[in-house]
Amino acid sequence: MKVILINRKHGGSRSIELGRWSRALLSLCCLGLPLGMVAVGYLAGQDSDARSMRGAALDRLQEELEQQSEDLQVLQGQAGRKLQALTLNLAELQARMTRLDALGEHLTAMADLEEGEFDFSQTPPLGGPLAGEFDVDFTSMDLASDLGLFEARLTDRERQLEILESLLSNRKLEEQSWLSGQPVEKGWVSSHYGKRTDPFSGKLAMHAGIDFAGKEGSNVVAVAAGVVTWTGSKSGYGEMVEVSHGDGFVTRYAHNKQNLVEPGEVVRKGQPIALMGSSGRSTGAHVHYEVFKHGRSVDPSSYLRRTRR
């Protein structure tokens, strides 16, 4: 193959003889250059697309991270509010537990249980052999639900204890108003109810009470709870206290050295209401004890050892 080169400036020409390998190299250059440019352009386009795709992926990842961050903040806020609510609920339950402990101690005292038999100030003793171990899945535990169940049980215990307190209070009230026992802390019966020889006239006369002799100044006590209806000096009785107990029962305590209560005062069973003396128509220190039922004098001896059935 011959290539002719023409020089326009000098008007001459020059011919070059190309061999087989030269022709092949020239052909390769003529064809390879466009193909290479096409290849370079293709690769450049691919790289641009890849960079574009990577940029879009990074943008989406950034958006997802921002959304997850917002969701995390919302969850943290909800968890904080739930924790605050659970804390308040726990504080309320602890206050109610304290109240139950106090109520239990009060009921223990009302029921006259022995010391240490049912101690609300201590945790209940527990024990037993290990029957098996269990794996606890703490992730599935619902603390709010557990607190709700505990609160329901606590409410039920409160209701039961309140009912028990009411029953014990009624029982105590009935026991307080129940006429029984002697009107003295220490003493002995010196004269019974009924006909006897009068110590002043020597004649047979009706004695409408029981006399309890004792040490002057010792306590005279109420045989039942009630309201003081009269105190003062009464002919034949000397210094006297009268107590109304309800259900038509009235008791009198006479010949006192000193009365310790006033009319309208509420007295408890066993409370000192006077001091033993010998005022009025009396031969020595004693208390004259009378019982009236619906306005009629009755024998007090039937109430001295009276017990509830």
Q: In terms of structural class, how would the helical and strand content be classed?
A: alpha+beta
CATH class descriptor name of one domain = Mainly Beta
CATH architecture of one domain: Distorted Sandwich
State which percent range the strand residues make up.
Answer: 25-35%
Describe the largest sheet: 10 strands, antiparallel
Low-confidence stretches: none
- Strand/helix succession: EEHHEEEEEEEEEEEEH
Looking at CATH, the homologous superfamily of one domain is Glucose Permease (Domain IIA)
CATH topology of one domain: Glucose Permease (Domain IIA)
Mean pLDDT: 78
Principal-axes geometry comes out as rod-shaped
Helix content: 40-55%
Q: What is the distance, rounded to the nearest whole angstrom, between the alpha carbons of the first and last residues?
A: 145 Å
Radius of gyration: 55 Å
Tally of DSSP β-strands:
14
Put simply, the count of helices is 3
